[in-house]
Amino acid sequence: MPRAKSAKINCAVFWKTQQSIGTSLPQADTPAAVPPPVETPLRKDPETILGVQPALLAGFVAVNLLIKFLFIRINLGEYTDGILQLLVLEIKAGLYPPLYGMLASAISVLGVDLEQSGRIVSVIAGGLGVIPVCMMARRLGGKSSVIFAAVFYTISPMIMRWSVRVMTDALFFTLCATALWMMMEAWERARIAGAKRRADLWLAGAALAGVAAALTRYQGAFLAVLWLLPAGAFVRYQRRLPLRALAVSLLWIALPAWMAYHGMVHSKQFQSRSMGGVFDIFLDYLNVAESFVYIAPYYFGLPVFLFALLGMARMRRILPHARSFIWLWSLWAVIMLVLQAMFQSFQYRYMMPVMPAVLVLAGVGAEEFERHMIARGRRKIYSLLMLGSVIYLTVFTCAVMIFQRATFGDQREAASFIREEVPPSVPVFSNEQYGAFTDLGSVKLSYWTGRRVSLIGPYLSEDGTSPPEKFLPTPCVVVLGDAYGGDPFVVFQTTQLNLYYHMRTIGSSHVTTYPILDDVMANPMFNQNPMGWVLRYKAQFFSTQIVMVDSLRTPAEMRDLAKRMMVSSLAVDAVDAQTSTTAIGSQSTTNTLAVDGL
């Protein structure tokens, strides 16, 4: 009997003990039944900001700004996209949102050249981009993660290259990273009791950064979809609406308003690049998507990629702290990959918005590697491997900056010659054409020369066997660059011009570039094509010829030249039939124009 009573008493005590323990254990995500925990900020001491020392963060920002400002004038030319982005308020091409151009225009008010102002915007954005990377690294790791992520950011060839270019990439990178970092902070705080105000403010900041990103590149509009995840968590756990964030979210109206005013042609680009049957289109998408994935280790930097894999392995141990990071960045990576696969343009700068997550994971992985190696007494091996990684990335970056600086430098030099030597009264034509946007004329040459440079296309025959629809006013200057169609196309154009006109070469420029990171290729078939990666160490030679067209040849001269050139005389016969028309008669009125300085 005593034993039976003792057993009953022990069972009762055990049951009460289990009940008391159960109430203290964390419950499942049922906020209605269990209130959220009291806030425990990440801030370790009063001298840190979200766990990161301000002096350390400011130091990395200063170093990045300094390095990038040192390289701000290294490039000899710029891309057409960058010039159009600068002139977005003047040229309604329907291609780009306005923020980058507006910021550059604001800086130019201080007396800085507009092109240089665009570079300054990129440099500042590139310098500030280290902040969200460090903050996310601190949330997932320790101080070493922050340092490693910041170092990898500073010597990344991709980031360095586009932080000194007239292009939106650096600004878009920083704004996307900031928006997603703020979404992470809002998501984590939404689950904490008494943190509704902070969570609301973080959500508002994320909305503001997302709107700014969308007004920099249209892909940023998809950040609004991701923003709904932390916003939904806020409503679920705090049982109220994030009023401040919703108020800021009204700024999203600016994007459709801009598109209605400026136009938007990207949908037509998507349609034009999706030709053929459904299966063929799918294979085209798959080819580009797989190429982005398979070649990623090279573009991110092999050491960064390997450390990022270690960081991904560590995510399992810190899952409660990494849940928001994993969800947001995984979805963002999928969105970017699908978009660019559908756009059918292999340019790895389009994957730069995913790089913040890679750098953060690399920082976490490097910290884990450091802990593992030191614990096993292999500090020297660890130090050598880290030193080798830093040297590899630094050399990679320097090679990109030096050997890819000359892209479109020949066009820039030709424009300088025209600006200095060709009178404003002499019309200028060129084969510089931006895709199918013929109404834009020659964008770079027009901007660099300070005058309208028209396309030569309408003055040439497409097949070479028929005369052009109209003839060039003479005298005039024609600029022919082999970056637009390659050498064979330039030879084809030159042959036609020589058949119809008396002309002479008055200038030329030549550059050599190495497409270490994807770039313009001498053979157009490799442009924006994964196959170009195979030729990344193959020199690409570009040249631009400046030709003075003095006068139109007589039909007899054309016929004699056609025989010697062994080309069809059909076009010449057609021209002969037009000799009495005003199309040719008008040439004599312009032949008397003097070309001073040539």
How does this model look, in words?
This protein is α/β, with parallel strands linked by helices and 598 residues long. Helix content is 58%, strand content 6%. It has 27 helices and five strands. A five-stranded mixed sheet has the order 2-1-3-5-4, with helices on both faces. β1, α22 and β2 form a beta-alpha-beta unit. The longest helix is centred in the middle third of the chain and has 25 residues. The radius of gyration is 31 Å and the shape is elongated.
What structural keywords apply?
alpha/beta; disordered N terminus; five-stranded mixed sheet; single chain; 598 residues; 6% strand
User: What is the strand content?
Assistant: 5-15%
Largest sheet: 5 strands, mixed
Count of DSSP strands = 5
Strand order of the largest sheet: 2-1-3-5-4
Helix run count: 27
Shape: elongated
Structural class: alpha/beta
Task: Note the gap between the termini.
Answer: 123 Å
Q: Which spans of ≥5 residues are poorly predicted at pLDDT below 50?
A: 1-47, 579-598
Brief characterization of the structure:
By secondary structure, the protein is α/β, with parallel strands linked by helices. It is built from 27 helices and five strands. Strands 2-1-3-5-4 form a five-stranded mixed sheet, with helices on both faces.
Q: How are the elements arranged and paired?
A:
Elements: H1 2-24, H2 54-70, H3 80-86, H4 99-108, H5 114-128, H6 130-140, H7 143-154, H8 157-162, H9 169-190, H10 196-214, H11 223-238, H12 243-249, H13 254-262, H14 266-272, H15 278-294, H16 296-300, H17 302-314, H18 319-343, H19 355-375, H20 379-403, H21 409-421, E1 428-430, H22 443-449, E2 453-455, E3 476-481, H23 486-500, E4 501-513, E5 540-552, H24 555-565, H25 570-577, H26 582-585, H27 587-590
Parallel strand pairs: 1-2, 1-3
Antiparallel strand pairs: 3-5, 4-5
Helix pairs in contact: 2-5, 4-5, 5-9, 6-7, 6-9, 6-19, 7-19, 9-10, 9-11, 9-18, 10-11, 10-12, 11-18, 15-18, 17-19, 21-22, 24-25
